[in-house]
């Protein structure tokens, strides 16, 4: 089966004249490649949102502490303290609006799901006979990976 689909590498998998077995192999290969790309992308996005969480959260906490301390010192320091508190509130509101921590966790879940799909597709491609049930399982895993961005149960 695989001898008829091999020859020119992955390009021959996409040849529709190779029959159903070649189409199953081609689709499995496509899913594996997609999963690899999405794993890398989800990893980069998780790292981005982790940085965004720190960049917005740490200055907000620091400004809140400094403004509180400045407001308690002298009456003349109350105006700068109020401005610092306002900046802190703005950063906190921005962090809350962007939900960077939630996005980071969603991308981490998705990265795990895409990596599992990539591994399963790689294993499926090593089998001598690829059947429709294996491909169906890969598509179910793909749906779970797509859903992993949103919820906890994906």
Model description:
It is a single chain. By secondary structure, the chain is mostly helical. It is 82% helix and 0% strand. It has helices at 2-5, 10-13, 20-73, 78-98, 100-126, 132-147. Helix 3 (20-73) packs antiparallel against helix 5. The longest helix is centred in the first third of the chain and has 54 residues, at 20-73. Mean pLDDT is 83; it is low at 7-15.
Average pLDDT, rounded to a whole number, is: 83
Roughly how many Å is the radius of gyration? 25 Å
Report the sheet with the most strands, covering strand number, pairing sense and barrel closure: none
Helix tally equals: 6
Shape assignment: rod-shaped
The topology string of helices and strands comes to HHHHHH
Report strand %.
under 5%
Number of strands: 0
Structural class: mainly alpha
Distance between the termini: 35 Å
Helix content class = over 70%
Q: Point out poorly predicted stretches.
A: 7-15
Tags for this model:
single chain, 154 residues, mainly alpha, 6 helices, 0% strand, rod-shaped
Provide a quick synopsis of the model:
The chain has 154 residues and is mainly alpha-helical. The chain has helices spanning 2-5, 10-13, 20-73, 78-98, 100-126, 132-147. 82% of the residues lie in helices and 0% in strands.
Could you give the topology of this structure?
Layout: H1 2-5, H2 10-13, H3 20-73, H4 78-98, H5 100-126, H6 132-147
Helix pairs in contact: 3-4, 3-5, 3-6, 5-6
